[in-house]
Write a structure and sequence with these properties.
The chain has seven helices and nine strands. It is an alpha+beta fold. The protein has a domain of 109 residues. The longest helix has 53 residues.
Length: 311
């Protein structure tokens, strides 16, 4: 990870800067040897001049005896155009540093503009901006820095609020869906429960069928054996099913028929639910005669009327 430095001059403090940024400031004259530097993770300020390799090494001191020789070399350099070449190199050094600062400023401004354009995306919340915008003359635009930081913080808060609002809307949607599902399930349970006979309802049907046994038996006999003479009715069973949704009913009718008045017995069966009465069936008939299906259907209708069911 690159080392970062803070710079102070008088009451002004800037940074952090990387070593490369400090060298560019040295090249442009923004950073002076007398400026104080503080490295991240340290609490000791040191002079910029004490940082090895930050400032160019001073030219070696020439002995006194070399002064005439140096002067003659300088004159020769001027005469040969060497001084002009030195000026060219100095200008290129300065221009490279100035362009580097200009590129840094443009990059920061582009980053802030990107954040503004993408403020609706929560993924843009993790953005780093530089701590200052160096101008061409090397001064620090503190007002611009503060404005940019305030704008980024405002946009970050706006993003956080949007994310929180989206999360709350999603939570409320899930709550509504769960409530609707619970209501549907409760309605289904209630509907299934309504199909079951309570003890009171079952007892009422049982007592009614047993009490109306003779009437029911007579109607059954007339429907299936119209020439038979009714004798009596027995109710072998009025039984509630295990799931309490069906009452199984069986009715036995004793009757006499034929020339000799023989005694016969016919047993009928059907089922009762809260949705209606099931199909009427003949379980046993000692007369051993074929019962007309239409007669049986008519008898079924009559029994439904007797038990309170409509066709």
């Amino acid at each position: 990870m690159a080392t970062h430095w803070h710079v102070t001059r008088g009451k002004d403090q800037t940074g952090p800067f990387t070593a490369a940024e400090l060298r560019r400031q040295v090249a442009t004259g923004t950073l002076r040897p007398t400026d104080m530097l503080l490295k991240d993770g340290s609490d000791k300020w040191v002079s910029a001049a004490s940082i090895r390799g930050l400032f160019p090494a001073p030219a070696p001191h020439s002995p006194p005896g070399d002064a005439p020789r140096f002067a003659s070399r300088l004159v020769a350099a001027v005469a040969g155009g060497g001084l002009c070449l030195a000026c060219v190199f100095a200008f290129l050094w300065y221009d490279a540093g100035r362009r580097a600062k200009t590129d840094e400023t443009a990059a920061l401004q582009a980053e802030v503009e990107r954040l503004r354009k993408n403020r609706d995306s929560p993924d843009d919340g993790r953005i780093r901006i530089a701590h200052a915008l160096p101008t061409d003359d090397g001064t620090m635009q503190r007002d611009k820095l503060a404005a940019d930081k305030a704008e980024v913080e405002r946009l970050r808060r706006e993003i956080e609020l949007k994310v929180a609002a989206d999360a709350e809307r999603e939570r409320q949607r899930l709550v509504r869906e769960q409530q609707a599902a619970d209501a549907r399930n409760a309605a289904l349970v209630a509907a299934e429960k309504a199909k079951e006979y309570t003890e009171v309802e079952y007892a009422a049907y049982r007592d009614f069928i047993v009490g109306q046994g003779n009437v029911i038996g007579s109607k059954l006999l007339v429907g299936t054996h119209p020439t038979g003479a009714y004798v009596s009715t027995g109710i072998p069973g009025v039984v509630l099913s295990a799931d309490r949704r069906t009452i199984n009913v069986s009715v036995t009718v004793d009757w006499k028929g034929g020339i000799l008045g023989n005694l016969y017995q016919t047993t009928y069966a059907t089922t009762l639910t809260k949705e209606g009465m099931g199909t009427l069936r003949v379980l046993r008939d000692t007369a051993i005669i074929q019962i007309d299906p239409q007669f049986l259907l008519t008898t079924e209708y009559a029994l439904k009327e007797q038990l309170g069911f409509r066709r």
